[in-house]
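#dry-run=false #mode=assembly
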Amino acid sequence: MADDRDLRELQDKCGIFACVAAKGVSPEEADVANVICLGLVGLQHRGQESAGIVTNDGNRFYTKKGMGMVSNIFQDGCLKELEGCMGIGHTRYSTAGSSELLNCQPFVVDTVFSHIAVAHNGELINATSLRNRMLHQGIGLSTGSDTEVITQLLTTRPSCGEPNGADWVARIKYLMKQTQCAYSLAIMNKDSVFVVRDPYGNRPLCIGMLKKSVSSLNHELKRFNSLTNIESKINEEDDVLAWVASSESCSFPSIGAVLMHEVAPGEIVQLTPSGPKSLAIVPPERDNYPAFCIFEYVYFARADSMFEGQMVYTVRQRCGKQLAIESPVEADVVSTIPESATPAAFGFSQQTGIPYVEVLTKNRYVGRTFIQPSNRLRQLSVNKKFGPLTENFRGKRVVLLDDSIVRGNTIGPIIKLLKQAGAAEVHVRIASPPLKHPCYMGINIPTREELVANKMDAEQLAWKVGADSLVYLSLEGLETAVQSGIQETKGRKVGHCTACLSGKYPVELEW
Amino acid sequence: MADDRDLRELQDKCGIFACVAAKGVSPEEADVANVICLGLVGLQHRGQESAGIVTNDGNRFYTKKGMGMVSNIFQDGCLKELEGCMGIGHTRYSTAGSSELLNCQPFVVDTVFSHIAVAHNGELINATSLRNRMLHQGIGLSTGSDTEVITQLLTTRPSCGEPNGADWVARIKYLMKQTQCAYSLAIMNKDSVFVVRDPYGNRPLCIGMLKKSVSSLNHELKRFNSLTNIESKINEEDDVLAWVASSESCSFPSIGAVLMHEVAPGEIVQLTPSGPKSLAIVPPERDNYPAFCIFEYVYFARADSMFEGQMVYTVRQRCGKQLAIESPVEADVVSTIPESATPAAFGFSQQTGIPYVEVLTKNRYVGRTFIQPSNRLRQLSVNKKFGPLTENFRGKRVVLLDDSIVRGNTIGPIIKLLKQAGAAEVHVRIASPPLKHPCYMGINIPTREELVANKMDAEQLAWKVGADSLVYLSLEGLETAVQSGIQETKGRKVGHCTACLSGKYPVELEW
Amino acid sequence: MADDRDLRELQDKCGIFACVAAKGVSPEEADVANVICLGLVGLQHRGQESAGIVTNDGNRFYTKKGMGMVSNIFQDGCLKELEGCMGIGHTRYSTAGSSELLNCQPFVVDTVFSHIAVAHNGELINATSLRNRMLHQGIGLSTGSDTEVITQLLTTRPSCGEPNGADWVARIKYLMKQTQCAYSLAIMNKDSVFVVRDPYGNRPLCIGMLKKSVSSLNHELKRFNSLTNIESKINEEDDVLAWVASSESCSFPSIGAVLMHEVAPGEIVQLTPSGPKSLAIVPPERDNYPAFCIFEYVYFARADSMFEGQMVYTVRQRCGKQLAIESPVEADVVSTIPESATPAAFGFSQQTGIPYVEVLTKNRYVGRTFIQPSNRLRQLSVNKKFGPLTENFRGKRVVLLDDSIVRGNTIGPIIKLLKQAGAAEVHVRIASPPLKHPCYMGINIPTREELVANKMDAEQLAWKVGADSLVYLSLEGLETAVQSGIQETKGRKVGHCTACLSGKYPVELEW
Amino acid sequence: MADDRDLRELQDKCGIFACVAAKGVSPEEADVANVICLGLVGLQHRGQESAGIVTNDGNRFYTKKGMGMVSNIFQDGCLKELEGCMGIGHTRYSTAGSSELLNCQPFVVDTVFSHIAVAHNGELINATSLRNRMLHQGIGLSTGSDTEVITQLLTTRPSCGEPNGADWVARIKYLMKQTQCAYSLAIMNKDSVFVVRDPYGNRPLCIGMLKKSVSSLNHELKRFNSLTNIESKINEEDDVLAWVASSESCSFPSIGAVLMHEVAPGEIVQLTPSGPKSLAIVPPERDNYPAFCIFEYVYFARADSMFEGQMVYTVRQRCGKQLAIESPVEADVVSTIPESATPAAFGFSQQTGIPYVEVLTKNRYVGRTFIQPSNRLRQLSVNKKFGPLTENFRGKRVVLLDDSIVRGNTIGPIIKLLKQAGAAEVHVRIASPPLKHPCYMGINIPTREELVANKMDAEQLAWKVGADSLVYLSLEGLETAVQSGIQETKGRKVGHCTACLSGKYPVELEW
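#status=ok
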């Protein structure tokens, strides 16, 4: 997955972000809409097709959504119109048509008690049967989005009634009973934001603390490993400005926040001006394992994010080391395709002692919309993006690391470019196992037929793309690389969803 | 110069590109407009404000110019309207107002013999006195651009008359006598393209050969070290599709071209369908030295370009090594700010044995137009662009390489970010000498007052930005790093313009 | 209401259009999306803020909506993507924010049987209580639009169940029982389009026949005065291409259609490839009268539309005659402000014998967005739009007809302009009674406080605007002018809603 | 020329406007850029493709140009950046490509004394030979525009030198000697604006006085019939804010100006803060006649403009009367196609006593870019723009006035529409003679081959378009209608260019 085009082949569907100003902080000081906007910029790699922010001032909801990149949508002072001391945001990738502003999140609906806004990362395995049930109830659905289904489930009042106003926890638990995975949610009513992770913990979600004056950006995971009795754990010197939640912790430093808690699988946390409070942990139906998506480590997440107490970059580096152990090769230099598998390449280099060099420079001005008509030039399109640093590899044997192979269309032209520019040999090492199965939990993967790993084995692929050798990391190797860095947490089980690699899905598939 | 904003602080003014289809090649096969467009994408780092292409079919000239990036301007089939078997292109940065489509190049004018189109990289030292002379002659000038001055000088007929049609070489020599530096030019009449470099060779320019089928992308500098008797040197197996010229060789691989010749200072080369022919070498007025801009090596050029027979990346690596020799420091890791001084950091690491690691990851989705109102968030703006890879440097002493310091505004927040994220010490090493003087030859440098090197020395700067130490490369060190890799070429003198660092200008300044 | 700005003061909310290709006609021949698009262009005066078209091919629904004018939204071949042999369209004006693409119609929802699309002209008097009931049922509502309420009412299954598929007539009758006015609707399922007019007939709606070859554009109202036994009334030589429905008949000639039937108050007509069929006439709850909006005659409708068997232009001309009878004046010329009350002015001239002349020419290039900062120029803004044809009225006494007065801001500057240009006297005659009351049935009228008729009587207004006299048409006069031309139709009662003039609403207002 | 498309068939090329604030008026009070902008809006009918304004504050020139309509170009506060107390503006139509921002006027050039700006309406008959002479002098020309030629002629210093600064009058006279027609010019240097009309007076130009407080908008032509001794004619109560010049007087009321002087053929008037001063009247080379374009009366000018002391509307009305005298017909109603020949139709009605009625209503929302693919709908395109007011003409004999016939494509479908809607007979009367010859003086007329009058006579055309009769106005009739209203001015000859109708050109054509 060497370049932007491939990025579209394998795409996480969303990023979510929430912010609630701390007690006593004025709207100007909290600057909630800006904080969310910056948070979304930090999650932009999780979706570039549309984005939205909804805030509320305890009374009215303010919404702004649009197609395109976060920094293009929220221009021209439109953030000023997003008033209030709390809000949620969303950034989205979708396979739907580009004009589908209708599907942009967060969704806002009016309910009998108040408006609510919902932002969702993930995909409901039983969305179809839920849709059908609603249609039979006579509810017209105006989009094809899972999030509309979630929203309508949330508007359903609990059977016991709600004599004292809305019982949102009961409504959220009802939602969690109706569908088990995969979702991470931010749900805002007029008083607070609920953040929820599905019982299998398939999509990531974490909580941060935004201090007025930043002295350290180091995470405080140990101090806040639980959110019960949260109030006693907050010191005065914490000097809190706001509480935030995000799909990934990488969005925290840009707003001056620190990571304080990773939302547990099945956990419901309420963010209010007084701080986050853990309200419940709903267990999965099948007790076998938590199932956090292993591909977040392999490819989706930004390298500076933390999951399960470890930095993604470090895990990727361990993948490279593991690959060097499993599949060493005699070579002169180790390298990678820019901005793809750099940590894995460093890991491979450290394990083998073969020096790391750069073999390609990237032209960052290549636009996506650029079209060349002639065949001759189309065949050279990889050369438009990458320039060979010939003096670094001419006449040398190169080990080229990549993070994963999807359709297998990009690696061939890169190898050709390196060889035309003088590489003696090119050995490809893929820092993940063959990708063979569809994902129904929030990742956009090409069809089974399009995945090259279903069409040929590593040796055949090596021949096809012109590599002198090509080896994947083993599934066990990947699991070892991921899990060996997770610190034992009392009573917390470790487990990952490897469905796209192994075909083993966390829940039964139902159509 | 760590990031995009700084890039605008110090900016080369232009890139030029030319293409002439070889004899017997059809317009469809040559695909000239596409080749130029791709060539300009490869020169986009030399100017992002506007771009233009002019082609001609031996009869009519076809022009398309626009504000913005190459890939945005040349969309929607507009390349198809740029007909013909030759053309020139230009990409430009300018300090002028954004709406100045008037100033976009190439300039096209009608002359008594035919239309000509002119693309120009550089800046005329005596532009003002030339303008005044023209105004006295009763010629109205409609732009403030040097290129209009050049164009009007070219339309001036030689005093001896031109009994047999236009004598373009005489006209170009007249132009070269009127002004000596700095310019690299592409001049197209209806039959051919002339490419010209000023007698001091201040701005770069090179020539390439575009083959029908690409087997090797290695440069053929040795084979074509002279363009006299060019025809005898072209083999049949060269299988030439077109001849191209470019400000930098980095734009050649993307169109399948190989570098064949670096235009010599003062050289006039004519590109026709039969190939490039060297017509003359006009010597400089002051014989002291050639004066190729040393900052092309330091910062402007793309790392994969070749100048004077050496790859820019390699020169930068030598700068890092030289810096390690001049100013070593005890530390745990060496690193750089992403996409800035990576080769220098590798050089420093190799020389010292201190391991190279990545300390920051870059958010490539940060838009330029993004605005945050509150002070608190503005102070964090560097955090929006870079995420700390904390596990790679927490508790460690970091050597941080940068290529140059202009205003000195960016490095401070980066150091603060690294320290807040846990760096024990941060030692800054700048791979070039202090930048102190304005450039009048084509580089956009802030005023003397804005350059931080005119306000404080290295020690004071270290204190101001919070570095534990900060050292520049010496001017001699830079010259050594650049010149030690240049292969002796018979009769060719070596020399570089270091005016912005040393204050020594190649020609007398005249106002 | 002399000019474009005023037009926004008093605005019908929508226009709807439908088309169903006749049996045996191919999609290419029927060209449904283009027919609807042209139909909407003919209804553009009923709403310029957004527009949309939904078609269906018996299987999939195809939707395209956008902000702005019809001719801007449906460009660039996007009509080709609207496939199928039937469709509905909508053009809309709204007080909601300009970016509210969410609220654009037609609305499309999925139901248990099929998708349906709904286009709506009008406003529900009891929308608020209907909304609340739905929210209590646990249905989340995502817009503030009445049309979402209508759509959700339509998705409600009849209590008796629908053993043999959807019973749309039962569902539509249920909808009609829940709310009585005001609406004209086009509802498309995958087989047909239902067009419905509320029991009071408040908003207009009519049906047309689109012939393959156009020989006459004259309406065939007499031949098709009922749609029962429709099939026996269609001759072979009718040569039908498609059946269409529209808010106004003025959109028919541009597609080659003829007006065949005005949908009766409370009538449900189904358009299928076999032709229109009247399915039911639902009577109003209060039997007192039909209540077709009289202001459609006064101002909203296009002059070439037919309502109740008479041309709107003719009715307006009768208003002018009636005004001349009620309030004659000695004068030299009769005139009007361009494109406003021309028919009334002709009527006044015919009745009195005072010659009609043009006093102003209109600058049709005045843009809406144009802004002038200085007070002096702002006071002249009416002069920007209208140029005085001085030789036609210098030294003369002018009677100036206008159709209505809303805020009363425009007429003053016009009178001033005429007098500065030499008019001896200016007598204003308004071809409708004073506008005093809000409309809750689909017209956007300023608040009671903003209506000038609630602030001063005719005499005071004359003084304020500088008129030598100013008289309104009486309510009885207007009713006479409207109703005297309606041909007696057996069993059909005649009646009009005059709420905005008289304060008498057709149904009880409920909040 | 019934509609917008035809309007593009026959198009005046430009409108020019100038404004100079009176002595002692502050820039804020004068609001020069806004005045020019409004003036251009009033000239928008003379060119809709691009527009520009240049102002100067005695020091710097400020320029803003753009493609499109005046009200779109000058938005968003850009007028504020056009500083200073004088300026000129231009609005333009051109056959050149839509992206030719290069050709937008006013042109600004630097000269040896100061910048000058030039705005031009007209076309130089000898442009080609002037271009060639310049190219031979070694001046490169960067556009194909006549205005660049004019601008370069103006930069030429008079042979006697200019010892005391620029002698602009000498330069303008030199320009006027080089080319005799057709042009009206506004030339701004840093102190004043010169307005110039060619010796034949082919294109219109007039001067106005902008008062601080407007009491009357009546022209003061008699008072200012000469601009010599202008100062003695200006009273204190004139209370002058600024002096303006315009192609047509119709742009004066919108800024509160009154018409004071029509620039005479060959006259050079200088506008300074002290008022307009007539500097010279350059006689034509051929003394035979003045040659003001008669088509300005027929079609181009706005009906409320004054030429030669008479209102254009009145002249057109006389054309209709003349036509009724020349070619009467028995009929029931007289009418016209909306916004085309209304005054002529009134004239015809007055002369014959046949009542005037409206037969068509215009849909003003029809966009220009709208495209319909099917043939059936394309044939109906005239119905999209015009709706038949059937009750006004069903069963009646209609006389339909039009101002002129160019290609003859529009009138046929209109007649068809009227007949399909029930007209018994349609008799066409054209209020001008057959259009047969090209114009080389500033009007864009189709080629000889495209003009229908060169292909068939009136009778043949009647048959082709389906008219029951079709008659043109005679050339003598037109000249009578135009000239009978011109008041005898002492010593001033009357004469008009009728070249497009008669083939007689005012000067010898030279290629």
